[in-house]
Amino acid sequence: MSSEFEIIQRYFKRPTNDTILGIGDDAAIIAPTAKMELAISTDTLVSGQHFFEDVDPYKLGYKAISVNLSDMAAMGARPRWVTLSLTLPKKLIEYNEVWLSEFARGFHELAQMHHVALIGGDTTSGPLNIGVQIIGEIESGQSLRRDGAKSGDDIWVSGYLGDAALALKFELQKIKLTDKEAELCMSALHMPIARIELGQLLTGLAHSAIDISDGLMADLGHILVSSRSAAIIQLEAVPCSEVLKRFLPSSLAVQCLLAGGDDYELCFTAPKKNRNSIESIAQKLKIPLTMIGEITQGEGLLVMDAEGREITVEKRGYDHFAS
Ligand code: ADP
Ligand code: MG
Question: Which of 97, 116, 126, 183 could form a disulfide with 87 if both were Cys (CB 3.0 to 4.6 A apart)?
Answer without folding.
Answer: 126
